[in-house]
Amino acid sequence: MVDKKKIKTEKGDSKRVPTGIEGFDELCGGGLLRNRSYLLSGAAGCGKTIFGLQYLYNGITKYGENGIYIATEERPDQVRENVLKFGWDFEALEDEGKLAIIDAC
């Protein structure tokens, strides 16, 4: 278990950005540190893309952020179709100007 009291941050970096992913934010002391870069690494099929897409969706729908997704392995239409399985309507977010999906395939 993560001891939240032991999480140390540099001055000015103490604000965390919630991911909105159930259980994850609690493990990380409230979310990811603001102004940091993170690398998700793992075997194929372990959930890296879903994690990133859920973070993006939650940022837009729960926290009022705008987002951009650069599709490097799946075409944007495949991404839109896949996220519908989770109830995430990326096409509607694009129509509202809150999300841009860039095709880099």
Describe this structure in words.
By secondary structure, the protein is an alpha+beta fold. It folds into two domains: 1-36, no CATH class; 47-105, no CATH class. Helix content is 31%, strand content 13%. It is built from four helices and four strands, in the order βαβαβααβ. It has a two-stranded antiparallel sheet. A two-stranded parallel ribbon has the order 3-4. The longest helix is centred in the middle third of the chain and has 14 residues, at 48-61.
Broad structural category:
alpha+beta
Main sheet, how many strands, which sense, barrel? 2 strands, antiparallel
Q: From the alpha-carbon coordinates, what is the Rg to the nearest angstrom?
A: 15 Å
**Largest sheet, order of strands side by side?**
1-2
User: Which range best describes the helical content: under 10%, 10-25%, 25-40%, 40-55%, 55-70% or over 70%?
Assistant: 25-40%
What is the strand tally?
4
How much β-strand is present in the residues? 5-15%
Q: Describe the global form.
A: globular
Distance between the termini: 39 Å
- Which blocks of ≥5 consecutive residues have pLDDT under 50? 6-13
What's the SSE pattern?
EHEHEHHE
Query: DSSP helix count?
Result: 4
Average predicted local confidence, pLDDT:
89
Task: State the domain count.
Answer: 2
